[in-house]
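SUBJECT: A protein chain and its fold
Encoding: whole-number codes for local backbone shapes
Chain under study, with its fold:
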Amino acid sequence: MQPVTCGFIGLGLIGGSIARALKERRGNVTIRAYDTNADTLRLAKEEGIADVTTGRIDNTFSDCQILFLCAPVSCNNENLQKLLPCLSEDCILTDVGSVKTEIHRAISALGLEDRFIGGHPMAGSERFGYANSKAQLLENAYYILTYTHASPALDQKLRFYRELVASIGAIPFVLPCRDHDYVTAAVSHLPHVIASSLVNLVETSDTEGVMKLIAAGGFKDITRIASSSPDMWQQICLTNRSNISALLGRYIDTLQRIRGQIDSGAAQEIYDFFDNARRYRDSFISVPSGSIKTVYSIRIDIADEPGALASIATMLALNGISIKNIGIIHNRELEEGALHIEFYEESGMHNAVTILKNRGYTIYEKG
């Protein structure tokens, strides 16, 4: 592959993961990085991920073929102004935000539409910061590229960017920016609003603490994303509010309709409601790093005796398997196995299954 020079304005979880993937999978890459955190820059340099680091946005980035805006969205306008004198005519300017219309509007106001392609790697983690970045975060993840209008200059840049995304193991997917914001509002943003609303409903209804105590696996599954960063979701709701509000209105209409069917005892309509949802949900393609995350977890039958849980955790640790979450399932209405273990990666789950089965444990896998 031809050599490429990439600049990163911000080197957190996503920027760091892209930089790592470029170094590990593409090769022949020079990376120039800016961040306000000196420790981040030092670590990136020590690890050989960043070739040049700086605490200022200046001519350090003048020879970059592609520049990633990876700082918080609230910093984009200020950073863009600083970058204007540094951009070469051929440089591709991109970002990694999950809302696109606003950044495209800012780019248009600066007359940079022929240089800008929005980027949204649909990958993430509960962890944050460069220290938790990893190249594998982007593997087989959809990486959406957005545009506002086609032009010969932009078409050429888009081909280059698609090839670069594919070279780091991600899946490039091109959308107009307004379509992107509507789609992600439906499959990512609205679910976070719903999950948080449901958790808040249970909290205000749970006067005796019984609901929290016996919360079943289904409740935990559909509300897991409510543990995400409130700062990030505040910003997403403010920057994509028209799409989220429109879809939220349609969702409320759906709830009112099923409420009426339940009130009237409309047996067939209630059945159709659940059956249609089941069939459509079962048709989804499982992409580990897409909007609908694959959860790598297993359930295990264990004896109710001292040290049983610790024995399993120690066994997996000694075999180099990282556990993301572990706990006893107290409400098992729809689940078998008393112990639930969640892993960061599919390989870790499979290795754990092999080890535990060899030790005589009964395993129930849940992808």
The mean pLDDT is 87. The chain is about 45% helix and 15% strand. The longest helix spans residues 177-205.
